UniProtKB/TrEMBL annotation:
Keywords: ATP-binding, DNA-binding, Helicase, Hydrolase, Isomerase, Nucleotide-binding
List of residues binding ATP: 31-38
EC number(s) per entry: 5.6.2.4
Protein name: DNA 3'-5' helicase
Enzyme class (EC, first level): isomerase
PANTHER family associated with the record: ATP-DEPENDENT DNA HELICASE SRS2, UVRD / RECB / PCRA DNA HELICASE FAMILY MEMBER
Positions of region (Disordered): 675-695
Length: 741
C-alpha cells in the first residue's frame, strides 16, 4: 500500500476525496449548501498542481465573485505553501477580459480597449437612439434598450445571430438595428461593455478554431464554482473550452446546487445543470451529503423550507459537524423596524461580549433599503460595520442626490449641493450653461442658487435651460413653503416628485432602478424620525462622519444575493414579511417560478449560519409616518416547528396578523397584548412622543449605550451629555431617558 495521503486529502470525507481525485473526464458535483463544494474545488486545484498533473497556468478556475477568487487563491497558496503565479483564476468577466486583450483584433478592437461602465453605456445608447431618430424616448427609454441588449448578450446573441423568435418589440422592432449600431460604435470607440467580454470571447472561440485549439492545448483542467448560476453565454464559453476534440481530455469539473440558483433575473439558467450530462456524455456525478457548516436545527429549518419547492433535483443533507447539536433557529416577532434593529444590535453586543468577532456576525437583507435602520443602530452602538458588495445607505447615489436637494432647500447658499442637483435630472444645462451661472455668481459674489434666480436673457443661457432653471427655483420657493406648513417629510416628498427626480428613476429601466426608488422611500421614512429638516440634516452629517479604521473587525451587512457561498457564526435574517420577503415583485408576478426563487434565496440565507440563525419580522412598518401592519412571511410558516423557537408577541400562530388582515384590528390586537407599548398610538403621525421637551439642562439621564450622565446642553434633538464613565458626548435624545437612579 502507498504511503498515507497528504494532509490536504486526509481532511476530506470519502465522497469529497473522490471528487478531488477523479481528475480525468467531466465531473459534476451536485450537493447541498455547506457540503464542501468550494473546498473540493480548491483542494482539486491544489491537488492538480501537487501531483504535477498541471502547471499553474494550465488550470482555468471560475468563481462567482472577485472575493471568492481571492479566497481560492489564498487557500491554494496555503496548501502549496507558496503563492502560484500566472493562475487563470477569477470571475467569468475577469477571465474573459484577460483573454479578449489577447485576441481583440479578431473583433475589430485594439488590445487596450476600455470597458465601459453602465453610465457610459447609457450615454452611448442615448446618442445612438438620437442619431437613429424618430424614437419616442418617453415610451421607449434608453434603459429599456439596454435591458434588451443585455438579455441578448446573456444568451450569446450577436446582432447577426438574433432569430425572429428572439427578437424584441422594443421601439416597433428597432432594437436589433439599434443593437447593431451600438456594437459598431463601441468598436469605433475601441470599447466594450461588460456583456461584450463574454459575448466577444464566445464568438471568437466559435469562429476561430485555431484560437480554440490553442486554449484546448493550454487548459488541461477547468473548474467552475456556483455552476447553477451560469447564464447561457457563460455556458457556451465553458462548453467550447471544455469540448476538446479528444474526449479523454474533457476535464471539466463543475460544482453547484440547484437549490441555490438565485440569479435567474440576470439570465442564469438552471437547465445548464441538466444539460451537463447531455453535452458531456459519460460525465460522472458525485454527490456530497454531509454538511460541515451548520448545526442540526439550522439544517432542519433550511431543509423543511426548501422542501416546499417543486421540481428539485433532490439531494440529501446530513449534519456532518462533530458538534452539530445546537440552539434552535430563533424566529423573533417585533413591533416595528426600529425594535427589530434594536434586537439585532443587542444580540451583536452580547455576542461581542462573549468574545465573538464582529466579522462573524452578518445581517442579510432581501432589499438594499433595509440596511438603513441597521446601519443607524450600529452607529449608535458604536459597532463598526461594512456593507458588502454595495454602498452604505447614505453613500448611495440617489440618497446623495436627494440629500443635496434637501440641503439646498434648507440652505440655498450650499453651492456644492446645488451643483450636484442643478442638472439632475437633466435640464438641458450643459457645461456652458453651468459656466454662465458660475460667472454670474462670481461677478455678483452671490451663491449659485441666487444666480440661478437672477439669470436673464442677457446671460448667455439658451431659452430652454433658462426656463428650466426658473421652474426649479420657483419650485424651491414653493417647497420651502410646504416645509413651513406641512412639515419636512411632505416637503421632501413633494420636492422629489415635482423636481422630476423620482420620475428620472421611474423612467430608468435598469435593474437597479426599483431599488433606488425603495431607498428614496426609506429616506422619507427616516426623516419622519426627526422633528425638523435641520435636525435630520445634522443627523446625517454626523452619521456620515463616523470615521472608520479599515482594519477593525466589522459586522457584515449585505443582501442575500451577495451572501452566496459565504458563512458566518451568527446570521440575522430580518424583514421576513409578505411583500418584502418574498418580494412584492415575486408576488405580483404570480405563479410559482418567482416564488420558488425567493424560497431558494431564503434557503441560501439560512444555510449561511454556522451556529446561530435569527429570523425576524416586524408587525408594523411605517410609510410616510403612517403605520401599516405587515403580514409575516409565508416562509415562517414553512419552517418545521421542531427546528425553531418563536419569541416576541406573536408566539402563537393564531395571533398572526394574517388572520386579522385589517390594519385596525391587527395593530390594536397587538397593542392589547403588549401593554408596555400602549403609550404608542399608531394612528399618530409621529413615531414616538418627542422626548427632548421633557428633558432639561442639568438633568440626570440614562443612555442605552453610554449609561448615566448629566445634560450640559440641548440643541433640538441632540444633547451634550457628560457621562459618568465615558466622558462628554453628543447623542440623540431618543436614546436617552430620565434617570431613575
Ligand atoms: P455553499 O453551497 O454554501 O457554497 P459549499 O458546498 O461550497 O457551500 P464550503 O464552503 O466548501 O461548502 O464548506 C463549508 C464549510 O465546511 C467550510 O467551513 C469548510 O471548511 C468546511 N468543510 C468542508 N469539508 C469539510 C470536511 N471534510 N471536514 C470538516 N470541515 C469541512
Ligand atoms: Mg461554495
Amino acid at each position: 500500500l502507498s504511503a498515507a495521503p497528504p494532509d490536504y486529502l486526509a481532511r476530506l470525507n470519502p465522497e469529497q476525496r473522490q471528487a478531488v481525485e477523479t481528475l480525468d473526464g467531466p465531473l459534476l458535483v451536485l450537493a447541498g449548501a455547506g457540503t464542501g463544494k468550494t473546498s473540493v474545488l480548491t483542494t482539486r486545484f491544489a491537488h492538480l498542481l501537487m501531483t504535477g498533473r498541471a502547471r499553474p497556468w494550465q488550470v482555468l478556475a471560475v468563481t462567482f465573485t472577485n472575493k471568492a477568487a481571492r479566497e481560492m487563491r489564498e487557500r491554494v497558496a496555503a496548501i502549496l505553501g507558496q503563492t502560484a503565479e500566472g493562475l487563470w483564476l477569477g470571475t467569468f468577466h475577469a477571465l474573459c477580459a484577460r483573454m479578449l486583450r489577447r485576441h481583440a483584433e479578431l473583433v475589430g478592437l485594439k488590445s487596450n480597449f476600455t470597458i465601459l461602465d453602465t453610465d457610459d453605456q447609457m450615454r452611448l445608447l442615448k446618442q445612438i437612439m438620437e442619431a437613429a431618430g424618430g424614437i419616442d424616448t418617453k415610451r421607449w427609454p434608453a434603459a429599456g434598450l439596454m435591458a434588451v441588449i443585455q438579455r441578448w448578450k446573456d444568451r450569446g446573441l450577436t446582432p447577426a445571430r438574433i432569430t425572429p423568435a428572439e427578437d424584441s418589440d422594443y421601439a416597433n422592432n428597432r432594437a436589433r438595428s439599434l443593437y447593431e449600431a451600438y456594437q459598431r460604435r463601441l468598436v469605433e470607440l475601441n470599447a466594450t461593455d461588460f456583456g461584450d467580454l463574454l459575448l466577444h470571447m464566445a464568438e471568437i472561440l466559435r469562429s476561430h478554431p485555431d484560437v480554440l485549439a490553442d486554449y484546448h492545448r493550454s487548459f488541461r483542467y477547468i473548474l467552475v464554482d456556483e455552476y447553477q448560476d451560469t447564464n447561457l453565454v457563460q455556458y457556451l464559453w465553458l462548453r467550447l473550452l471544455a469540448q476538446h476534440e479528444d474526449p479523454a481530455r474533457r476535464n471539466i469539473c463543475c460544482v453547484g446546487d440547484d437549490d441555490q440558483s438565485i440569479y435567474s433575473w440576470r439570465g442564469a439558467e438552471i437547465e445548464n445543470i441538466l444539460r451537463f450530462e447531455k453535452d458531456f456524455p459519460g460525465a460522472r456525478i458525485v454527490r456530497l451529503e454531509s454538511n460541515y457548516r451548520s448545526t442540526k436545527p439550522i439544517l432542519a429549518a433550511a431543509a423543511g423550507l426548501i422542501a416546499k419547492n417543486a421540481g428539485r433535483l433532490g439531494k440529501t443533507l446530513r449534519p456532518g459537524r462533530k458538534d452539530a447539536e445546537g440552539e434552535k433557529v430563533r424566529v423573533v416577532s417585533l413591533w416595528d423596524s426600529e425594535e427589530e434593529a434594536r434586537m439585532v444590535g443587542e444580540r451583536i453586543e452580547q455576542a461581542q461580549r462573549r468574545g465573538h468577532p464582529l466579522s462573524q456576525c452578518a445581517i442579510l437583507v432581501r432589499a438594499g433599503f433595509q440596511t438603513r435602520s441597521f446601519e443607524e443602530r450600529l452607529i449608535t452602538l458604536g459597532l463598526p460595520y461594512r456593507v458588502v458588495g454595495g454602498l452604505k445607505f447614505y453613500e448611495r447615489a440617489e440618497i446623495r442626490d436627494a440629500m443635496a436637494y434637501l440641503r439646498v432647500l434648507h440652505q440655498p447658499a450650499d453651492d456644492l449641493a446645488f451643483e450636484r442637483i442643478v442638472n439632475t435630472p437633466k435640464r438641458g444645462l450643459g457645461d456652458s450653461g453651468l459656466r454662465a451661472l458660475a460667472t454670474l455668481a462670481r461677478a455678483e459674489q452671490i451663491p449659485l442658487a441666487r444666480a440661478a434666480e437672477r439669470i436673464t436673457e442677457a446671460d448667455a443661457l439658451k431659452p430652454k435651460p433658462r426656463t428650466a432653471l426658473r421652474e426649479l427655483m420657483q419650485g424651491f420657493a414653493r417647497w420651502r413653503q410646504v416645509n413651513e406648513t406641512e412639515g419636512h417629510v411632505v416637503a421632501a416628498a413633494t420636492l422629489l416628485d415635482e423636481s422630476g427626480y423620482t420620475d428620472m428613476w421611474k423612467a430608468d429601466r435598469s435593474p437597479e432602478a426599483p431599488g433606488r426608488l425603495d431607498n428614496l422611500k426609506e429616506l422619507l421614512r427616516a426623516m419622519g424620525d426627526y422633528a425638523s429638516l435641520a435636525g435630520f440634516l445634522d443627523h446625517v452629517a454626523l452619521v456620515m462622519e463616523t470615521d472608520e479604521n479599515a482594519e477593525a473587525e466589522r459586522v457584515q451587512l449585505m443582501t442575500l444575493h451577495a451572501a452566496k457561498g459565504l458563512e458566518f457564526d451568527t446570521v440575522f435574517l430580518p424583514g421576513w414579511e409578505e411583500g418584502l420577503f418574498p418580494s412584492q415583485r415575486s408576488l405580483d408576478e404570480g405563479g410559482d417560478k418567482a416564488l420558488e426563487e425567493e424560497r431558494r434565496l431564503a434557503y441560501v440565507g439560512i444555510t449561511r449560519a454556522r451556529r446561530t440563525a435569527i429570523i425576524s419580522h416586524a408587525a408594523n412598518r411605517r410609510i410616510y409616518g403612517n403605520w401599516t401592519s405587515a403580514i409575516p412571511s409565508r416562509f415562517l410558516d414553512e419552517l418545521p416547528e421542531e427546528a425553531i423557537s418563536r419569541e416576541g408577541q406573536s408566539t402563537q400562530r393564531s395571533n398572526r396578523l394574517a388572520e386579522t388582515p385589517s390594519v385596525f384590528t391587527g395593530a390594536q390586537g397587538l397593542l392589547a397584548r403588549r401593554p408596555r407599548l400602549t403609550e404608542v398610538n399608531p394612528w399618530d403621525q409621529r413615531e414616538r412622543p418627542p422626548r427632548a421637551t421633557s428633558l432639561a439642562k442639568g438633568e440626570r439621564v440614562f443612555h442605552e449605550k453610554f449609561g448615566y450622565g448629566t445634560i450640559n446642553d440641548i440643541d433640538e434633538d441632540r444633547l451634550d451629555i457628560t457621562f459618568d464613565h465615558t466622558g462628554a458626548k453628543r447623542v440623540l435624545d431618543r436614546f436617552v431617558r430620565k434617570a431613575s437612579e
